[in-house]
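If your schedule permits, I should be very grateful for your opinion on a structural question. The matter concerns a single protein, recorded as an amino acid sequence and a row of backbone structure tokens. Could you please explain, in whatever detail you think fit, how the structure tokens follow from the sequence? I set the record out below, with my sincere thanks for your time.

——
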Amino acid sequence: MTDMTKNEFIRWLEKKGACKEGLDWANAQESAQDILTKLERQDWLVWLVGTVGGPAWDEYLRVEGPAWDEYLRVKDPAWAEYERTKGLAWAEYQRVVDPAWDEYLRVKDPAWAEYQRVTGLAWAEFERVVDLAWAEYQRVTGLAAKKALTWERVVEAVRTSFEQKLL
């Protein structure tokens, strides 16, 4: 069975727990097949491939695992570098302000500004690197979900639900 109406697909999506925003978007599409072919949101694609399950989910997981590992490969060292830089900045801050309260009062604001400047730069670099890695993860897993979600697989999942009277 490779055909279903838009209303059947939307009913299936609703019964499977699709969010209101996703259902509204789906309703705005021309056909059931357009819902699948025009879907670009990574989080919705991943939800749908997981909901369809079976071979679609297996195919998605073959890409998702390595993509997640690559994201962590980039994120973890970036976090460690941020923590290292923050630790050095904090140690320098402590070295400057600890000797005496009067000296502390004299130097604390410039030292704190430098700490904030240095950690701000480190944090910005961490965010830049992680955001790039996250965008790549979303791109790769979105493509994997989109590739795994063939029209036949989606129709089969919907039809099976109807046949098993799950909807």
User: Anything to note?
Assistant: The longest helix spans residues 101-148. The chain is about 85% helix and 0% strand.
